Amino acid sequence: MMKKISAKQQRILDFISEFSLEHGYPPSVREICAEMDLRSPSTVHAHLKKLQEAGYLEGSDHKSRALSPTGGPSMVPRVPILGRVTAGMPILAVEEHIGYVPFEGAVGGGEYYALRIRGESMIGVGIMDGDLVIVRQDLSARNGDIVIALLEDEATCKTLSVTSDGVWLLPENPAYPPIDGTGCQILGVVKAVYREY
Fold first, then answer.
1. Which of 121, 161, 164, 191 is catalytic?
2. CA distances from 41 to 155, 165, 173 (A)
């Protein structure tokens, strides 16, 4: 989740980005002190910690050389790609952190992640085989939402339909049958589709 940062923190972030692009590695705490006209390395450490907590820097141990911006100079928020989900018949949900994808909407709050779609059951709403869907982690969804649902240990991407005769997971392709969603667990709501080609 990306949080608001102060003007000083934005300046530090811009400096880290520009320095990293120019040198191929981030600046040291002392270099940040010099650039920002700060005397105390602990002040820089405090700003770096805030930037890391806000999602603008990634790394470890609060050593600035180990920290790197989560995007280019524009700092577009990114969400982790956690694996594959089916848009066909349900397949085993595999969680594997395999990279990042940019998503501006991640600033609004909540946990987001991306999943690679396998299958063609959602082509009617423009979700194609091989696309990445950006999902907001949520345990509930509204009727008509496109959701990632878990049935036993299998995850699927479908449109949620709650009717008087039960819960259904509907494909958006007439070649696929509706799935009885009774007892399914909602893992999240699809917020966007990302196509890499």
1. 121
2. 47, 63, 58
